[in-house]
Write a structure and sequence with these properties.
4 helices, 10-stranded mixed β-sheet, alpha/beta, about 260 residues
Length: about 260
């Protein structure tokens, strides 16, 4: 590593592995068994506690706390980890905790995600790629968030839930059940409103696929089918539409039940 890019005011454990062209600003504290990939930037006043792998090209803003012990009473100091992919942005005051032994031992955050100020990612969560978490979003333990999901400011997600790919959660929404892929959810209590059509258009989904998903929304939410009946209807519609299979998979993988 180049010492020219590392502030002399940092405290860095001897076991830390730092890649090429990593910048570490003043007053950062980096603990044992931490890896920081090439091209990453840690601004200032950042704590990376321990047992954390940070990929390449990440930007972590001031006052963030990464890889801290999980806030779980069952945690008793066992070895657990936090893994972060590439090209993520962690804005001011983001917190991300390691996993727990009883929860699989690892928290994972993918690549190209934007976590705005004061987002919290709890223990044993799995976050996909290209997600956006607006200010003060709180993700409880053991939550899975799919690729391209967007969570509005102050949204809160209960533990052990799943947020499907391309789903969108409105600001200040409290999520208490699983969210199927591609859906928009908002309100208190939370309600599934429609398909995230504008978001899908921006990501290059064609009109036919979006039309198929709109029809799928009606099958699930408007036609008074049981969930299994709705899934059976979607399976009959899915030929040639990959997005419908993603939606079906999100429905079938639900363990806590979907918002409906």
């Amino acid at each position: 590593m180049s010492t020219d890019l590392i502030s002399p005011n940092c405290q860095i454990h001897p076991s830390v592995k730092i890649g090429r062209n990593v910048r570490v600003g003043p007053w950062c504290v980096i603990g044992e068994n931490v890896t920081i990939g090439s091209g990453s930037v840690l601004d200032s006043h950042i704590v990376v506690k321990k047992n954390t792998k940070i990929g390449e090209g990440n930007r972590i803003f001031q006052f963030s706390s990464i890889g801290e012990d999980p806030a779980d009473k069952k945690f008793s100091g066992e070895e657990t980890w936090l893994e972060i992919g590439d090209q993520n942005i962690f804005r001011e005051g983001v917190t991300a905790h390691r996993g727990t032994g009883s929860g699989g031992g690892i928290t994972k955050i993918g690549s190209k995600n934007l976590l705005m100020p004061y987002v919290h990612i709890a223990h044993d969560c799995f976050i996909g790629d290209n997600t956006v978490f607006a200010n003060n979003v709180g993700i409880s333990g053991h939550v899975h968030v799919g690729d391209w999901a967007i969570l509005g400011g102050y949204a809160g997600v209960n533990q052990f839930l799943k947020i499907g790919a391309h789903a969108m959660i409105g600001g200040m929404t409290h999520i208490t059940n699983d969210i199927p892929a591609f859906m928009i959810v908002s309100g208190r209590p939370a309600s599934v409103r429609s398909v995230n059509a504008i978001g899908l258009e921006r990501r290059g989904f064609d009109k036919e696929t979006i039309s198929d998903l709109r029809e799928a929304f009606k099958v699930i939410y408007k036609r008074k089918y049981s969930l299994q009946e709705a899934i059976d209807q979607l399976k009959a519609m899915r030929e040639g539409c990959e997005a419908l299979q993603i939606l079906i998979d999100s429905l079938e993988s639900s363990e806590k039940g979907i918002h409906r």
